Fold this protein.
Amino acid sequence: MANLRVAIYQSAKVNGVWSYYRPVTARNNKIKPDWCHVNGHKEHHPDSDYIIKWYEGKRQRTRKCKNAADAQNEAEIQRSVLNARSLGIAVTEPAGPSLLLSAAIYAYLEDYRLTHRPNSYCKTKQTLEEFLGYAKRTNLGDVTRIDVLKYREWLLKNKRSPRTACDKFLTVHSFLKSKGIRLVSGRDAPKYVEEMPEVYTQEELDAFFKACDSTESLIFSVFLKVGLRERELIHLEWSDLNFKESTLRVSAKPHYGWVPKTNSEREMVVPEDLTRALEQHSKKSRKGRPQHNLVFPNIHGRPNEKLLRWCKDIAKKAELDEKKFYLHKFRSTYATACLRSGLDVPTVQYLLGHKDVQSTMRYLAPATNDIIKEKLNKVWKKKISMLFPVATVLPDGSIAVSASDPAIMTVYPSTE
């Protein structure tokens, strides 16, 4: 296996003898200029130099650097070149401090892969590789502000939604910013309107579930009545269910390399009818296959990654618009139903597994026009007469001020 290590050393004169020492790093992982470790102690040597060392095969290579910052930059450049070569990517080592754009992207992606979720990594990888192909620049230092702005324009012209274009633009911006290049800012990102979450109507749900078989009906009932995310449902195991208490636990599954989105477990309440259906499904599906612990596995006993396709196929079978059917819409319907039924926002926030309350508040979607009309009619029937009372002159000359309710009336006698 190729040696990808690139080390930084500080050349300092100690007791009249020049030697190499490891530099001192601060809490932000940056080298503290002119400080190095000498015999277990931190010492200040302002007259020192820096070098980087690495191996190419069995041959050790070194390069002298101007200062601590230059040494860290050169080390990153060389590390990116070695990483790219180890993957079979043909790169030419730059003669100066200009880092190859392809190598810089690879180094950034490798760091991103180790610190973010697989789905986020795949989206970031696709975006940066797309930008690399569009920009057609060899070195990172050759990228200009015009390149980034033209990439934004290209995204919008190629039928990307403004939201998608904004996300991709900010991904490129974050990459360049991590390399110390500030060509654009968040204000340059494409503008978009935050859309309200979509929910299913009762008519759509009735038609959809009518077209489901028993297993499909149970799967999408869990989506609808418990509000799970897709990854939470496909990694759901029987050990997460408590039939006696009618609860369901969202927990990490390290054996599948999966953790909940907010890195925290939570317990969900399951409706009683759904609990009974899951218990019956447990007896039926685990008969003869006790080793399968997943609640809804695929035919190989692994997490089922085809539920979106199932959803659209069922919608098509029910003669519904399949473009309007997707998994997260069940979760939106669940959240909106919970909030409209009177559950308080903090409780719904916990059930959805949201970190911030603003994410939950988005599901306080406006009611349909018919519901709004009905509620407004009730409001104004009760309140309009109180806001605008009606004055009537009685035969005896007195004045009666009344609301639409005859029980609410005030009579003012005649002054004559």
Notes: The chain has four domains: 6-86, 101-188, 202-361, 371-412.
